[in-house]
Every structure is written in C-alpha cells, then in structure tokens.
Specification:
about 200 residues, Si:ch211-284k5.2, CFAP97D1/2
Length: about 200
C-alpha cells in the first residue's frame, strides 16, 4: 500500500508510514477521550421528588382494599368449608300457613249472616200462607161439576180420572185428620188421668 507516501505530516519525519500510523493512533485516542470526557458543568435537569412520582395515599388505599378483600375471601372460604363439613342448620321446608289479618272480623260477619239466614228461614217456614188453597180447590171442583153437568157430551177420560184422584186424596186427608185428632184427644185424656192419680196419691 503506497497511500502513506502522499501523507504530509505536520512535522518532518524520516518514515512517513510510521508517522501516519502514530498520528492516527493519537487521533483515535483523542476522540475516545473526548467522547468519554465528563462535563465540568452539570447540565442535567433537577430530580423530580419521589412523592410526585408515587402516590402514597393511593397505594395505601389499594393495600387496604386488598387486605379487606383477602379477609372476606378467607371468611367466605371458611364458611363454605364449615357448610360442607356440617349437615346444614337451615330448615328449607316451607310450612308457613297463610294467615289473614281480618280473619276474626270475617268470621264474625259470617256468623252474623248465618244467624240472619236462619232467622229468615224460620220466618219463611213459620209464616202461614195468605192464599186459601183449599178454597181454590173446592171452587175448582165445583166448577168442574157444573161444567160436566152443562156439557152435552161427557168430558175426557183424563179429566174424570183427575177428579177421581182428587176425591180419593180428599177422603184420605180427612181420614188422616180424624185419626190425628183422635190420638190427640187420647193423649189429653191420658195426661188428665195421670194428673188425677198423682193428686190423689198426694192426698
């Protein structure tokens, strides 16, 4: 390599090749020391305080929240373990009977309505009818006889049968009435005789 022949050193040298090599070595060493030299003046910015970079209150609240969550988790896990080990203390059967707040009032109203209904029923059953059914039947029979007498041809057989049944029923009713009256009279006579016997024995 003949490039060193064209090299022009600052000072005269007997060997241009070695002079060039030494000059480049000194130059590289100079550049290295320049790059690694520490400045005499501190041009860096001021350090930011630690309380500006880290929010200690936020860290404290977060630590407290995590502590509470861990405590709740431990309690929950212990409760679940207790439930799994035990048979359970809660009765899940629903034996609740529905209760009404005004059941006594409704019961009293029902009793009052029942008494009124019974009283009304007694009045209805004990009240005598104002219609004279016997008289109407007698008038009807009398009119039927008159009609039969006035007709030129005999009435239908059905009408005759009805009249016959009516007569039979009347006779039966009269017989039952007479029997009932005779029994009542016998009972009355028997009670009078018993009273007479008791009075004579007392004397």
């Amino acid at each position: 390599n003949t490039m060193h022949r064209a090299y022009d050193p600052l000072l005269p040298a007997s060997n241009k090749y070695l002079q060039k090599k030494w000059d480049w070595a000194r130059y590289r060493d100079h550049r290295r020391r320049v790059e690694t030299a520490a400045p005499m003046v501190d041009t860096k910015g001021s350090r930011t305080p630690a309380h500006h970079l880290i929010n200690l209150k936020k860290l404290q609240l977060e630590d407290t929240r995590l502590t509470v969550v861990e405590r709740d988790n431990r309690l929950l896990s212990s409760n679940l373990a207790t439930i799994m080990r035990s048979k359970g203390l809660v009765d899940h059967r629903n034996n609740y009977t529905q209760k009404s707040l005004n059941v006594e009032k409704r019961h009293r109203e029902l009793q009052h309505i029942s008494r009124e209904n019974w009283a009304m029923l007694e009045r209805v059953t004990n009240t005598k009818s104002e219609y004279r059914r016997e008289r109407w039947e007698q008038d009807w029979e009398r009119m039927e006889r008159i009609r039969n007498d006035l007709t030129r041809y005999p009435r239908e057989v059905k009408t005759c049968q009805i009249l016959k049944k009516v007569h039979i029923q009347e006779e039966r009713n009269q017989t039952e009435t007479s029997v009932t009256l005779s029994r009542e009279s016998e009972r009355t006579d028997g009670s009078n005789d018993a009273e007479c016997v008791h009075s004579s024995s007392d004397l």
